Amino acid sequence: MTETTDLAVLEIKPEQAPALYVPNGLDAYLEQIRQSVNEVPDLSTDKGRKRVASLSAQVSRSKTAIEKPGRDYLKRLKEAVKPAEAEIKRFVDACDALRDETRRPLTEWEAEQERIAAEKAAEEERLRVEAEQKAAEEALKKQIEADHEMALLMNEKFDRDAAEAKAEAERKRIAYEEELKHQAVEQARIEAEQKAQREREESARREAELKLKAEQAEKDRIAAQEKAEREAKEAQERVALQAKLAREQAEREKQEAIAEEQRKAKAAEDARLAEEKRIADEAAKRAADKEHRKTINNKAKADLMSSASLTEEQAVAVITAIAKGEVSAIRITY
Question: Three-class SS of residue 311?
Fold first, then answer.
């Protein structure tokens, strides 16, 4: 590449962005820029130094030409993601609500089945207690019959004792039956309460698990979003820093160029002022010399008028002739 070759103007159209702004998608442009500045100007010459500054500025312009449409494309991508995030959240919330509503009949059915099972268990317990009571009554009846037969063989005292014993046995039987019924009812109540408590705890556990999963999912979503935003921000900061460094470099080059121009302008101005001073000095010198000659001539004129009794016109004529060299062997020393 010769020193007169400039880097071609780069342009990326919006429709090219998706295919270019991908990993290694800009390598071709980077290589083109690298090849375009692949020269070694002579830094010992003003032309060579200007060429280096020009190549550097060309790289900056090319970078901006590639970076700006990329930033615009990235901005469009971010704007496009926001509706998707909102739609995904709306969809997830709707699905969660639909899931709970869909399962509600099953949840109610399971609760009903558990209630029926509890009632069935209580009924079975009641039947068991009744069976035990019936067996106890049969045993007691047999005992009473045996006691009755025994009492028939005894005397009146034994009859009275038997009657008392029978009454006591009947009282105990009734008390025993009442106690069995009370225990059965209390046991059924306790078991029903325990069952209901277990159901409530299980339901609360399921709800807590669902809530934890939902909260974790939200945390994961927020973490992913924050990570993406953090990475995007870091990328923007890196790009901003690179842009800042490039601007500072360009500003330094600009200031150096301005300083160079100012040095040249100052040199030219100094030369102009020196020339003006020389001309002014020469003019002043000529004016001073003229004034000096005038003073000498006037003194000579006065001397001629006083010493030679010449008129002023005659004295001026004599001095003029001498000054012009028209009088031999006579000159005026200034």
Answer: coil
Token code pair at residue 145:
């019959």
Residues 6 or more apart from 36 whose CB is under 8 A from it? 1, 5, 7, 8, 58, 62
Hey, where are the domains in the chain?
Answer: 14-260, 272-334
pTM to 2 decimals?
0.29
Residue whose token pair is 């020196």: 274
Beta strands in 223-262 (DSSP E): none
Burial of 62 (0-12, 13-18, 19+ CB in 10 A): buried
Q: What is the pLDDT of residues 147-196, one digit of tens each?
A: 666 656 655 665 666 667 677 777 777 777 777 777 766 777 787 778 87
Q: Check the CA dihedral 197-201-202-207 and report its sign.
A: positive
Closest Cα to residue 218, out of 77, 78, 79, 88?
A: 88
Task: Report the C-alpha gap between 99 and 93 in whole angstroms.
Answer: 10
Report angle CA 195, 199, 201 to the nearest 5 degrees.
115
